[in-house]
Design brief:
Length: 129
């Protein structure tokens, strides 16, 4: 059976994604789209595995200078703006924000100009993306 490569880290990562997704209230379809994006992106997969181990970002993967921490903070700001509370409360699901940051990074790599505009232009009170 030579020639078969078994990478248990990816299985563990997928199991971790499902566990985080359940905790974060994400549906299976959304999680599978995120997973399908992570598989071919070795840099982001490495980041995700690091996140599973440390519950923080190593921030090595960048898109036009923006890393996962930047996207996480952007998600947090949007959450606070939508709820008009000014700060994150206990009801804010940090794991959901982290998963959203990974998903946003995947989308940002496909269309960086759109996301750079969103990150740099700011949002008015009546404008949600």
């Amino acid at each position: 059976m030579s020639g078969i490569v078994y990478d248990a880290r990816r299985i563990r990562a997928y199991e971790g994604l499902l566990a985080l997704g359940e905790y974060a209230g994400k549906d299976t379809e959304w999680l599978n789209r995120l997973w399908e994006g992570l598989i071919p992106d070795s840099g982001l997969m490495k980041e995700f595995m690091y996140y599973l181990d440390h519950h923080t970002f190593c921030d090595e993967e960048k898109c036009r200078g923006y890393g996962l921490t930047d996207l996480y903070v952007w998600q947090m700001d949007r959450y606070n703006l939508i709820r008009d509370i000014g700060k994150n409360t206990e009801s804010c699901n940090k794991e959901a924000m982290a998963l959203n940051a990974f998903y946003t990074m995947l989308e940002m790599k496909k269309d960086p100009d759109t996301y750079i505009r969103r990150l740099t232009a700011g949002q008015g009170m009546d404008q949600l993306y």
